Amino acid sequence: MTDIAALRTRLRQRRAAVSPTDRADAGRRIAHCLRGLHLLRPRARIAVYLPTPTEVDCWPTILAAQRNGCALYAPVISDYAHRRMRLCPLHPPLSTNRYGIDEPADADWLDPRWCQVILLPLLGFDQLGNRLGMGAGYYDRLLRFRALRRRWRGPLLIGLGYEAQRCPALTPKTHDIQLDAVVTESGIRRFWR
Q1: Contact 139, 120 (CB under 8 A)
Q2: What pLDDT is attached to residue 2?
Q3: Is the dihedral of CA 49, 51, 56, 58 positive or negative?
Q4: Distances from the Cα of 24 to the Cαs of 18, 147, 150, in angstroms?
Q5: Dist CA 48 CA 91 (whole Å)
Q6: Is the pTM of this model over 0.90?
Q7: CA nearest neighbour of 160 among 61, 71, 85
Q8: How far apart are the first and last CA of the chain?
Q9: Distance in angstroms (rounded) separating the CA atoms of residues 6 and 18
């Protein structure tokens, strides 16, 4: 097993070890932190994710954003063979994709460049904003445009995770997209200047 595969296995185990009570508490604390950043403004275009059972529950954030009048979008896998996804408006009905993840059934989509904030799940993160995902590269493909920008790097990319997912250091690959911030149950780590 390669080092990165072993690290992913350890991080999956850490994430799965978070109790349902702690998971719910973390989701509430993270929503509170995001509200404190004043990013959930009326009409702001926010991309969220619909969590799997072990990921940080972002439903408290989704509900807060809806109350504030944000336009919400969620990932929909549009091409399994080429590992591509799109951001579609978040509203019922939801369907379940082949990975068991809920997604909107809407065919409309928004180019991620037009979002103000994109909230991403993660498997691991380090103190420099490097993100380790599940390994399929869906978010790296969706956000590839950020690597081509020299100045403005919007939208803000914010990873949501647990403190148990923090790593000492990750070595990013050339296609990896760096986060602007990570929010855990312990607070916010900002990487933007």
Answers
A1: yes
A2: 60
A3: positive
A4: 10, 34, 38
A5: 12
A6: yes
A7: 61
A8: 37
A9: 19
